[in-house]
Amino acid sequence: MIMIRNTIVFQDQNRRCLQRGTSLIELIFVVVLLAAMVLSFTKLFMDVSVTSTNPQFRLTATMLAQELMEEIKSRRFDENEAKTADGNWSKTLGTDNGETTGSRSSLDDVDDYQGFTENLSAPFSGFSRSVSVAYVNQDALNTTLTIPNSVPNNWTPDYKRVQVTVNQGGSQRAQLVTIVGSAKSRDTLY
Fold first, then answer.
1. Prediction pTM value
2. I need a labelling partner for 58 at 20 to 30 A (CA). Which of 2, 3, 44, 155 fits?
3. Residue 62 and residue 55: Cα distance in Å, rounded?
4. pLDDT of 119 higher than 60
5. What are the start-end ranges of the H helices in 74-189?
6. Rounded CA separation 124/148 (Å)
7. In a domain, 134, yes or no
8. Which residue intervals of the chain are DSSP H helices?
9. Which of helix, strand or coil describes residue 111?
10. Range of the domain at 82
11. How far apart are CA 165 and CA 132, in angstroms?
C-alpha cells in the first residue's frame, strides 16, 4: 500500500484500486464553515424580527404624539386674552396659578404644557410623552427665543413653537412640531 496525497493505492498483483478519502482537517473546516453559516442566518432572522416591530412602535408613538398635539392646539394661545398694557403676552411659559401638569384638564392655554411629561400606562406601557413650548419670531419659526430676565415692552411675539416628543424603551419614536399663533398673527401670517 502506497499513500499519495489522500489517495490510497492498493496494489494487488496485477490490478490497482484507487480509494479517495477526506482528511480530518477537511472535515473540521466543513463543520466550522457550516456553523458560521447557521449563526449568520440566525442573526439575520433575529434582526428581521426586531426591525419588524419598529414600524408598529413608530405608528403607536406617532398616534400618541398626534393625540397630545391636538389637545394642545385646542387650547387658547395665552392665559391673557390680549397683550397686556406693556404690549406683551405671558412673560413666563408654563403653568399658571391653580394649574398643575398632573391634571391636564386644568391646562387651559398652549404654554401651560411647557415642561409637561407623562409616563403612559397600559395599553401603552413603556411609552412616555414630553412637551416643550417656546416663543418664536415670524421670520425664524424654527429658532426658539429665550425670555429675557427683564422683558422689554412689546417683546413677546405672536407665535409659539410646540414640540411633542414620544419615547419608548429609551429611544425617541416620534416627534411632532407645530407653530401656534395668536388671533392677531393669523391675520398677518398669510
1. 0.69
2. 44
3. 10
4. yes
5. 183-189
6. 39
7. yes
8. 24-73, 183-189
9. helix
10. 43-189
11. 9
